[in-house]
Model the fold of this input.
Amino acid sequence: MVLLLDLLLALFHHMVCQAHIIRCSIHDPHSPLHSYHQSGDFIIGGIVFHGGFISGPRAFSEKIPPDKHEEFAIVPKNYQHLLAFAFAIKEINGNSKLLPNLTLGFRIYDSYDNARRTYHAAMLLLSLVETLVPNYMSNIQNNLIAVIGGLDPEISLHVANILDIYMIPQLIYGTAPVMNDKTPGLHFYQMVPQEALEIEGILSLLLHFRWTWIGLVFIDSDNGERFVQTVFPMFTQRGVCFAFIERIPKFTYITEIYGMLEQGSKIYDKLLDSKANVVVVHAESYSFAVFRWLPYLADLQHEPNKIKGKVWITTAQMEINAFVLQRNWDTELFQGALSFRIQSNDLPGFNSFEKSRNPFSTKGDGFIRDFWQQAFDCIFPDTAVNDMEVDVCTGREKLESLPGSFFEMSMTGQSYSIYNAIYAVAHALHAMSSSKYKHRTMMDTQGNNLKNEQWWKLHQFLRGVSFNNNAQNEVSFNENGEQVAGLDVINWNIFSNESFLRVKVGRMDHQASPNQALTIDEDAITWHSWFNQTRPLSVCTESCHSGSSKKVKEGKPYCCYDCLPCPEGKISNQEDMNDCKKCSDKDYPNKNQDFCIPRTVTFLSYEEPLGLSLAFFALSFLLITTLVMGMFMKHHNTPIVKANNQNLTYTLLISLLLCFLCTFLFIGQPQKRTCLLRQTAFTIIFSVAVSSVLAKTIMVVLAFMATKPGSRMRMWLGKELAISIVLSCSFIQATICIVWLETSPPFPDVDMHSVAEEIVLECNEGSVTMFYCALGYMGILAIISFTVAFLSRKLPGSFNEAKSITFSMLVFCSVWLSFVPSYLSTKGKYMVAVEIFSILASSAGLLGCIFFPKCYIIVLKPEMNNRELLIRRKKC
Done:
């Protein structure tokens, strides 16, 4: 590294400053200095211009020699700023309509980017042409009108401290937000849009391409610090995180190269290690040349390719340029970069004006010889040393042959701002001379001399200036003295021969709302070859896809996160959502949990297979029960029908018939009446059926006990006891149902939560306690019937129903014991289906176990349905 630095210092030898000042003024064509102006020396004072490039302080200026121990770094490309200045002056002086009675001239001073000599130059502007005598103006030709500059904000501030004493306007052609912090009331104008629009443009680019993980590099100055303090909270609030924030030192003198390379090495390490593919750069006009060191630092560390895969986003202040020693250095680093530029069109005639410049034929330009030697790497014959092996400048060299980093034939954004600044002053002078204050402001009636103290009135005309320049772009200022204009988004296409092409790929509209200000043609962008012409990705973490949400990693910026699947019942329908959200009550998440599906309204209906099947079985059992009842009624006089209380048999059959019928209350859309009837009717009817079975069982036991000699049980035999058992047991169940209906009756309800995909229309049971009380009571009756029947199953006697009742109660209890867990484990319409199935199964069990054996005898074994046979068998 030491050897490299020594070589670089040798290459930087004899370089000079990159900042300068230009002075120009109104010239009276009838004054004694007119012939001097026509000679092309341009010494007439008035407008001041500085910042950018200057190779030496000779032409257009009083000479202010640099300190002997200081050597400055040159940016040859900024010579075009001087040409834009001279071109605008030439056009204005050739326009008979704009300032018909006045001729503009100018003088240039080199500031050397140094506060002391900037103040010195500013004082010279207020003095005689050759003598530093401030406040002394001898004639009209030496009156200072305005200052054009500067490119760097600190220089502009230094000049403003002097000019504002005299209320002389300063038109700044570089970004200078630091000027807003100076003393209120100081007059200056910015020839670029306000920086807030540019910052909003950068943020809009990041959000458009979803670049949320970026690096930030800024110049180590008050302007750079101001930029960081502005963008950091603004970007963070909009979801953009910073992988690193690095500052680069200001670089003016050769002796500062050590610090520049040391800091550059740190920046290189950050770029190499960071996953961020996007780097935002806020720097000075010459800073592009500083970044050209990075590929060479990469070469030294044997990592020549890894640094190239970045997207650089630069502010309008930066131009593609180079120091003299970087003539053939690779610029592929910035291929595909995006930058901003004030909206502009090509100026007619400027290209021809540039081509006409020649060091042997151009007069009054003391900068062209130094520029020519540095740009074309040659020496003029009168300065060449005999033993030096260098090319001799012939004057036949072509500016268009220079690489774009040394000189551009098209006007740069900074040169365009200089051009507009001079025209703004000219139009303000024109408006001032045309106003009603013309004679009182411009002329002294006694001596016909210009009154310098009246020039402060030029400000009110500058504030209101509005015109279309020769490129048909409007130029005007807002209330803050900032030019009202939008920004173009430029894509840099850099070629292997060091030439480059600026491609306009979008714009920032200053009149649109922030969310709609940026328009971008993504297809027109050429990315760095590293990205294979696909949109670059710059995120800390790959996007969380739909169906998942972000979880910030502990100790990391919020752009670095893990992706977690959405919990059940929630969705995320966008990438990188901070949290999953619930669907509305009418929707439910799909399988991937990335969007909501409308829920279907459902209930157990006759139109679906399940409801239709249950209805079919209910009708079938209803028909069978009707047939059994008809058969029993037909054979009502036979012993098998009369046995065990014929009335109880018909009561049981009717209750079973009603049980099958009540299942239809459970099918169909729930209504208020059906909800009130379905559970109460079912439990009361079933209680009647089970009470009838219990009465039958008790009657069997009593009948056996009554056959014993001397038994008193015979007095209990009769219809009254059976009816009493049925009525009393049923009355208790009816009482429970009445209390249920009075306290918390069932009602139609909508279940939004049980089934995710469905909105279930159901009957809310009202009081769940009363529902299970009714079921419990029915279960108690069934258990008592089962117990009594089981104990009397072996009693003798023909047509003993105890065995049949035992089996029927066993089926009944099994069905309803399994009903409870099945009912609680199902949801939606299937809960209703489980209850219907339990009703049908238990009812069919009673019908089958009690009545099918009797039907078998009645239909297939009629000989057994005979009283004599029964008596004979009994005697035997």
Notes: Residues 1-71, 441-453, 872-876 have pLDDT under 50 and may be disordered. The two ends are 130 Å apart (CA to CA). The longest strand covers residues 500-508. Residues 173 and 414 are 6 Å apart (CA to CA).
